[in-house]
Amino acid sequence: MKSLKLSAIILGSIGLIFVGACSNQTANSEDSAASKTETVAQKGHSENDGHDHSEDEKEGEHSHGGQVIESGEYHLELVAEPSDDGTHMDFYLAKGEKHEKVSNAQVTAQIQLPNGQQKSIPLEYEADEKHYHALLPEKAAGEYKVAILSEVDGEKVNGRFSFKR
User: Fold this and answer.
1) Please, what sign has the CA dihedral across residues 41, 44, 45, 46?
2) In angstroms, rounded to a whole number, what is the distance separating the alpha carbons of residues 165 and 160?
3) Is the model's pTM score more than 0.85?
């Protein structure tokens, strides 16, 4: 009976060690993925980032100072600027290594306000500025979580962003 109890304790301890090791490895890989996303969002691009830039991109049209997400072959960037009438949201959607502007997408912002309320706002394409835009009339202070839902020729291209006001 003693050996049976001892075997159960040893087997249980070994199981806990494996569970602990696996959960730590998962946490480390999630931290690594999160830091890569943050790095892309914070750094923007440089001339040596591994893909071609046309001349107009080198002069600053490639990044607009917002949060950037690379989703497959798409480049998504959200710039949220507070103003007296709310928050102006500018969304840049580009495709491929040369970051060609996408002008034919259906774009909607699903926004969670600081108080938890949900709001859905369609973004319209501005041909002169080559980006999508909308005004969020909310002025409450706090963190706004934004899911940009885009559909380009039947393909879904989504990104998650946040900003504080």
Assistant:
1) negative
2) 17
3) no
